[in-house]
Amino acid sequence: MIKIAPSILSADFGVLAEEIARVEAAGADQIHIDVMDGRFVPNITMGFPILDAIRKRTRLPLDLHLMIVEPEKYLAEFAARGADMLTVHVEACPHLHRTLTSIRELSPRRGAPVKAGAALNPSTPPDMIEYVKDELDLVLVMSVNPGFGGQAFIPAVYPKIRQVRAMLGARAADVSIDGGVKVEHARPLVEHGASILVAGSAVFEAADPAAIIKQMRAAAGA
Ligand code: DX5
Ligand code: ZN
Predict the structure, then answer these.
(1) CB of 6 closer than 6 angstroms to any ligand 1 atom
(2) For residue 172, how far is its CA from the centre of ligand 1 (angstroms)?
(3) Which residue among 10, 72, 136, 213 is least packed, with the fewest CB closer than 10 Å?
(4) Which pLDDT score is estimated for 222?
(5) How distant, in Å, are the alpha carbons of 78, 131, 177, 198 from that of 3?
(6) Is 151 within 8 Å of 179 (Cβ atoms)?
(7) How, if at all, do strands 174-178 and 138-142 pair?
(8) C-beta 65 within 6 A of ligand 1
(9) Confidence label for 56 from pLDDT (cuts 50, 70 and 90)
(10) Which residues are known to be catalytic?
C-alpha cells in the first residue's frame, strides 16, 4: 500500500491550519515537514514553532526531513515536540550508524518508537546505506537536489530506487521519494519499489488537492 505524504513547504503558511486540515481530509497518510538550515542546503525554512503548530492540528504521523548539518544536536527536541519520523541526510552525518540508532532510542511518543530515516541526494550512491540497513525504518531517495519545492523530477533516480529496495530486501523499511513528484510519476515509482510518495507543489498548488491525492493513489495501485 502506497503512502502519500504532502510536503507543507508548498502550503500557504498564512492559513497553515486550514492547509493541514485540507490534506488530512483529502486522505494524506502523513505530513512531510522540510527543515532547512541555510548551510546543508541554500535555503532556510521552518523549525520548532511550526512543528508545534502542526502537531496541535493533526494526529497524522509527522515525517521530518532534516536538511541540516549536525542534525544529531536537535533529534531529541524534534522527538519531544512530536516528530514521528526523523530523516537525516547521509551527506550530513559522518557517524550515520550512531545517528540512526540514537533516533530509535528516543523516548517513544504516543506509544510508537520514533522512526529513523536516511536521505540520499540525487548524486549519492545507495552504497552509503549498505552497513546501516538494519538501523533504518525508511530511506528517502531525493529526486531533486534538496533546497526548494517546485523543481523538476530527475528521472535518473529510477534505477537507484530499485537498487535501494533490493538492498533493503524483506525488511519492513519504506522507500520514500521526494522532489518533483507528480501524478504521472506514481505508477513508475511504485513499480521501481517506492512505498511513500512525498508531494509538495503537486498537492498544494492544485485547485483540488483531494483529487490529486486520489489520482496518485489510483495510479500507484493500478
Ligand atoms: C525539497 C524538499 C521536498 C519538496 C517537495 O528540498 O525536500 O520535500 O518540498 O516539493 P515538490 O513536490 O514541489 O518538489
Ligand atoms: Zn522533503
Answers:
(1) no
(2) 24
(3) 72
(4) 61
(5) 22, 26, 11, 9
(6) yes
(7) parallel
(8) yes
(9) very high
(10) 34, 178
Tell whether pTM > 0.85. Answer: yes
Residue 123, number of CB atoms within 10 A of its CB: 10
Closest Cα partner for 189 from 171, 165, 213? 165
- Whether 118 contacts 142, CB under 8 Å: no
Q: Which residues pair with 88 in a beta bridge?
A: 66, 118
Mark residue 113 as left, alpha or beta (left: phi above 0; alpha: psi -120 to 50; beta: remaining): beta
pLDDT tens digits, one per residue of 6-50: 999 999 999 999 999 999 999 999 999 999 999 999 999 999 999
Best mutation site among 145, 198, 203 for ligand 1, i.e. most ligand atoms within 8 A of its Cβ?
198
Q: C-alpha grid cell for residue 85? A: 519520523
Provide the percentage of residues in the chain whose pLDDT is more than 70. Answer: 100
Ligand 1 probe mutation, 23, 34, 140, 143, most atoms within 8 A of CB: 34
Scan for cell 538550515, then name that residue.
Answer: 37
* One-letter amino acid of 53: A
Report the C-alpha gap between 222 and 217 in whole angstroms.
Answer: 8
Q: Where are the beta strands (DSSP E) in 39-186?
A: 62-67, 85-89, 115-120, 138-142, 174-178
